[in-house]
């Protein structure tokens, strides 16, 4: 009875239901969300608005800041591109082929999600150092250069591409490919004209997810990067440096720009996922 | 691959070939090459780094390894990590269940906005996640002077570490449960209600058994992140050895002191945690696939 009364009270806000607990769970959800996430982020936004556009611009035009943004976005882009290629390959191999150890490898793809970033960071920098297991075979330096950042971000971003492409690849119907084959297409044509367009939205989503993660990544990068300002210094590290120097205005300005960038990426991801779903339905 | 064109374009050609090749699938050579390249990539980027952690930790024998683990600062770091996770995981578990109940079982306006906001911490850089708390409670904040006057330390102390951990692990349980409970619908709960169950009985006897593996799955991922978080915690911790260092931060300090064996020893515990997480996660996925992941994407 109480529920019926409350639905008439709330009117068009929600559909009537005989299940209880709407008010208390929604109230708790919104309160906890505000307390943990929204108020802290609003605090940052408020600080940024205190700086004004001029203050923001003054920080953003510092050569060191520009350099850090360049390094961060370029390395994240490179890593996301590598992951798009190899992530698609790994997803393809896992979905299409049977081979010994496939399940173990499938499980292992999530390692970058589960492994603490600092552990990944020290392991990669030990491996890719000049005398490391991998680094000694390479003709060029990887650790302590921007290439090192790309290696770390490739590690971090891989599961994003694999896990977004894999289910879509699993759902593609063999009939469509068979039809293409009957109509005279060879394997390459089938892949580029039939399979690839079907998984393209998912691949783009995976790319964007990996890129977004790479832009914000800190733990795995700082050990291998070398952290030379303008060359291999990433934005998250610069924020920490500014905070340690008690330059809160500078840190706020940089963080605000980073947040704006991540929200744009989040929006892009949502649109892409919408596109993927629309395509699947159609 | 001209052979396949032959199959496709002229039907009788199939009969002429001794072994008809299926229309789908690559030639064994291409297949082997693709598998090979994928495996080499995964070997380089996933397997070798993992092996390296354990090798670097143990290559001087078990003595230095265990010494690094029982050292007081390392033990303190382990305790702090466990404590932060012990606070963050239950909090986000309760939140996740509450949020997915109201989102999955009811229709209301603004629902998709709420879901987007819940996912927000995932798109914020860990460093910024920690920084917001420094801005909120640090010495330069509005309540900073008040906190100092009352001798309450939040930043560079335990509360800050816990808050940052709660922030970064915030969406884990909710984002697993929301799609799962949405797919399960409300039929069973409505039936229970009609048959006279109270709201709480409906939840504990109908909903909870349906979502238990999903809950475990979410908690597992939440815990892995809570114990492994580095960036956010690094900003708020203050790096006081034996006091405000979590395990990942302890790894960083040891590594920067060139104490590689000790750094990798502590790191190997975290890697072990990651491996256990992966094994349990995979077992859950294989055993209870239908009860963990919503089939709808």
Automatic annotation (TrEMBL), chain A:
CC per GO annotation: plasma membrane
Domain ABC transmembrane type-1 intervals: 69-269
Residues that span the membrane, as ranges: 21-46, 66-95, 107-128, 140-162, 194-212, 218-241, 248-272
Topological category with respect to the lipid bilayer: Multi-pass membrane protein
SUPFAM superfamilies from the UniProt entry: MetI-like
Keywords of this entry: Membrane, Sulfate transport, Transmembrane, Transmembrane helix, Transport
Subcellular location field: Cell membrane
MF (Gene Ontology): ABC-type sulfate transporter activity
Keyword Membrane carried by entry: yes
Keyword field contains Transmembrane helix: yes
UniProt function note: Part of the ABC transporter complex CysAWTP (TC 3.A.1.6.1) involved in sulfate/thiosulfate import. Probably responsible for the translocation of the substrate across the membrane.
Quaternary organization: The complex is composed of two ATP-binding proteins (CysA), two transmembrane proteins (CysT and CysW) and a solute-binding protein (CysP).
Family per record: Belongs to the binding-protein-dependent transport system permease family. CysTW subfamily.
Name by which UniProt lists this protein: Sulfate transport system permease protein CysT
Source organism: Skermanella stibiiresistens SB22
TrEMBL record, chain B:
Name of the gene this protein is made from: cysW
GO molecular function, one term: ABC-type sulfate transporter activity
Subcellular location: Cell inner membrane
Entry function: Part of the ABC transporter complex CysAWTP (TC 3.A.1.6.1) involved in sulfate/thiosulfate import. Probably responsible for the translocation of the substrate across the membrane.
Membrane topology field: Multi-pass membrane protein
PANTHER family xref list: SULFATE TRANSPORT SYSTEM PERMEASE PROTEIN, SULFATE TRANSPORT SYSTEM PERMEASE PROTEIN CYSW
Pfam families (UniProt xref): BPD_transp_1
Source taxon at top rank: Bacteria
UniProt-recorded name of the protein: Sulfate transport system permease protein CysW
Keywords assigned: Cell inner membrane, Cell membrane, Membrane, Sulfate transport, Transmembrane, Transmembrane helix, Transport
SUPFAM superfamilies, alphabetized: MetI-like (SSF161098)
Chief place of localization: membrane
Summary of subunit composition and partner proteins: The complex is composed of two ATP-binding proteins (CysA), two transmembrane proteins (CysT and CysW) and a solute-binding protein (CysP).
InterPro entries named in the record: CysW_permease (IPR011866), MetI-like (IPR000515), MetI-like_sf (IPR035906), Sulph_transpt2 (IPR005667)
GO cellular component: plasma membrane
Record flagged with keyword GTP-binding: no
Location of the ABC transmembrane type-1 domain: 78-285
TM spans (from-to): 29-55, 75-101, 113-140, 152-174, 215-240, 260-284
